[in-house]
Amino acid sequence: MLSNSCQIAFKTSPKALEHWIHTYVQVNAVFSCRRRAPSTRLKHAVFVMLQGCISGSNRTPWCAPIKYVKHGSVSCSAPTGQQHKNVMGTRCKIRCKQGYETQSSEVVCMASRRWSSNYACQEVRCPKLNMPVNGGYKCSDGSYFNSRCEFFCAPGFGLKGQKTTTCQHNKAWSAGVPTCVDMDPPKIKCPNLKDKWAEPGKLTARVTWDTPEGVDTADGILTDVVLKGKPSKSNFPEGLHKLSYTVFDRAGNKGSCRFTVRVRVRRCSQLFAPDNGYMNCDSDGDNYGATCSFKCTGGHELSGSAARVCQYGLTWSGTETKCSPMNINVGVRTAAALLDQFYEKRRLLIISAPTAANHNYRFQMTNLQHAQCGLDLRHVTVIEVVGTYPAQIGRIRHTVLPPGLALQLRLLLRISQRSFQMVLVDKQGTDKQRYPFPITAAELFTTIDTFPLRKDEMVLQQEAGQTCHS
């Protein structure tokens, strides 16, 4: 028995048949938009179909049956009255699993015995990721669904953003592409310097080193290296000096290092001024190359070394310096020889009187008796000449001068032996002042303190702490 469509084809006229073919083609999705008459080839295909109807082969499948869709499911519905779900006009709905997609959610079996489109479920694919600047990424499965991509940065750069992203079923990545930023500070290594020793006679040492270069693990671009402290080839004083270098990269990251410069001074044991003497040292007084010179106060003679130098082995050159009381030789033949012993060492105050009972003489000696400290401070030696020749007596403190030497002294200084008189002689042997009458110790000291040489002595004595308290 013929199907309805076959019965229609045989009961109608040729014009009706052509109209039926045109109408049948319009039903098909592929030819639904055609408005012109079917082609001869199409008509032939319809006649073949009709021939199949007449021969009873209308149940022969047209398209390959869709029994299984990988990664999905299919549901087909055939035209009314057809038991096969792959004949022309059969519609199949395709549903893919999450992460998969098909070109069309519905396909139709065409007269060409092909389905209207590819119905395979293909894996979802996300857009290709951009490569981060100064970095990259690695993916487990390219840009396909569930592919996990991990980002990384070049040495010296740090990741800013999500480290990983995953391709989702909606064709979007779970996170955006991060950026690689320069986060590592540049590296700089400071010099390692050994202790430096000061040069002879100096308290400083010239220290030299090479300026370090910074290294940036990112783009390698750095600012100038900045030093905090004295530059290389400078003279550093004794002690420990802390210095540092700083460098910045283009991202503002700072790298720094610190180092020290230690300058040492070779020093001898400390010297002290001898009793009744002065010491004057150059440089720092006890450092290698320093020289200390010594002088004795008036009335004292220097023994040992007048100058000593601190040597490399940290010992002083020469021998210990001492200032001993002058040994006055009164056995000389002339008054000039006697005075020469005091040259540049002591000032002299010669007191002459005709007798020991002379009123002026007694007053003067009583006044000076309580001023011995002031006399010693001003390097004054008192020489007494009392009496008339040949019974005259001379003495320097407890040392007695021979009568002939005392007479020569009066003659040399033109001192009368018949009246009281005092003569003040400076260290250079100059007759500075004569007094025909007694004076107080204060008046005498005031006069001596005006001498040019005395002013230098006062500075030294003040530095040495030498003074009279009474």
TrEMBL record:
Q: Which CDD domains match?
A: CCP (cd00033)
Record's keyword terms, sorted? Disulfide bond, Repeat, Signal, Sushi
| Cysteines paired by S-S bonds | 153-180, 296-323
Identify the PROSITE patterns for this entry. Answer: HYR, SUSHI
Species source reads Takifugu rubripes
Asked if the record carries the keyword Disulfide bond, the reply is yes
- In what residue span(s) does the HYR domain sit? 181-265
Q: Tell me the domain of life.
A: Eukaryota
Which InterPro entries does its entry note?
Answer: DUF4174, HYR_dom, SRPX-like, Sushi/SCR/CCP_sf, Sushi_SCR_CCP_dom
For this entry, the protein name equals Sushi-repeat containing protein X-linked
Write out the transmembrane intervals. none
* Domain spans labelled Sushi: 74-123, 124-182, 266-325
A GO BP term here is: phagolysosome assembly
Per the record, a Pfam family? Sushi
